[in-house]
Amino acid sequence: MRRNLFIFASIVASVFFLWLALRDIDMAQVISVIAQTHLAWYALGLFTVFLGLWTRAVRWRGLLGFKIPLSHAFHILNIGMMLNLIPLRAGEFARSVLVIRDGVPFVTGATSIVIERVLDTLLVVVTLALLLTRVPAAPEWVTRSALLFGVASVVAFVVLIAFARFPVFGHRVIDELEKRLPLVKRLALGQLLGHMIDGLEPLTHPRRFAHAVGWTLISWVVSLITYYCIEVALGINQGDLWLGAALSMTLASLSIAVPVSVAGIGPFQLAVRAASDMAGIPATLSVPLSLLAHANAVLVYAVLGTIGLLAMGVSLSSLLGEQAKVKTDQTL
Q1: Is residue 182's pLDDT more than 80?
Q2: Distance (Å, whole) CA 166 – CA 201
Q3: I need a surface site. Which of 9, 45, 58, 224 has the fewest CB within 10 A?
């Protein structure tokens, strides 16, 4: 019953956000723009999505301590990305389960994914803060606030890494916060912070830190190129294309935070339209961009995810069975 309600809510959310993204748009004109897509640039965009997934697999393998073959990391990552397309978003849990086959503990796999999220979120926040300073229509207070938030995020990350390097001191600080601020203890924020400190421990090793940060930067540069390729494929020649690509990349990534949607449909389109508006790209071009970029990603995730299942010798039913078993073991 709960699962059915969640799926229904996801469908409703996707329809609502998609309506917001497509309102006041002549869909005949959108279809006309998409029909004139330059196939060579579109194919390049498809390839860069593939390349982006490969770079993320390289990063993830490093976060796992290089304990699994790169091919396995790539296939498992693709399976996870495909499963994240469904409303229940079981991809991350599935990745943690599948690495057990290579002798990696479930907790280690889950921790590595937390680190991924921390690094990606930090980069998105800092990048967005810098990009807003280039948006002509952005009020000065918005750009200043964004920069301050970006700086604060970097400082917070450095502090967390320091706490992870010296965990005894870090947990002592958390204990003091819980004593002085009852709200921290009541909302279990201290416990959450403690888990985050423990999870960031791998980044206290210089080699693994450099590997993770370096490949994070590379993967996001590849993502930027993906959006630019789709812009060129659609023949967009108005506005700042690189600014539009960068803003689309960051806002589309933040749209994933919407807890309910079907394959990100709706929030993704709204995010790309908002980003393109800030870059001076008209809605008649930004809507085709949002639709084609999303279709691009979904197509690659679905194809590579299916290949991953075949390569790893896994069926969806057996994977769900393994997930249920691990959940049971974790609760015992």
Answers
A1: no
A2: 9
A3: 9
